[in-house]
Amino acid sequence: MLELDPGMMIWTWVTFISVFVILYKVALKPMLQTINDREEQIRQDIDQAKLQREEAQAMLKKHQELLQSAETQGQQMLKENQRQAEQSRQALMEETRRQADQLLDNAKKEIEQQKQSALMELRKEVADLAVGAAEKIIIQKLDPREHEAVINEYIKSMPKSIDN
After folding, report:
1. How confident is the model over 49-74, as a mean pLDDT?
2. What does pTM read for this prediction?
3. How many beta carbons lie within 10 A of that of residue 122, not counting itself?
4. Are 150 and 137 in contact (CB under 8 A)?
């Protein structure tokens, strides 16, 4: 059956150990070193990816803050522009109101001046008519009928209405 030969067993062990040592030095050691190097490279890549992710999140947060700040500033500028537009509108309305009041006052003054001028003219004409009538009365010897006729004639020659 199976016989164990001690010489063969020693040579088998010697061969196994020498093949193991050769494989360890030639194949296994470089393979383990490559695996370790690759593992270290993967670990570094993961750490770098984490750092980049954190940086990206920080940049995203910063951009969101900037966007919020810009939006807030835009709203403030819009409110300020609306306030200034309202002030401009109020100032323009006040200026227009002031100019309209001034035009109205000027028109009233002009009307009053024209009224005074017309009254002065009327008084002058009435005075001239009265002087003329008195002159005619003095020059003529009038009886009561003639006197009444002269008065009626002057009354007819006077304007129809006199407004104060």
Report:
1. 95
2. 0.41
3. 14
4. yes
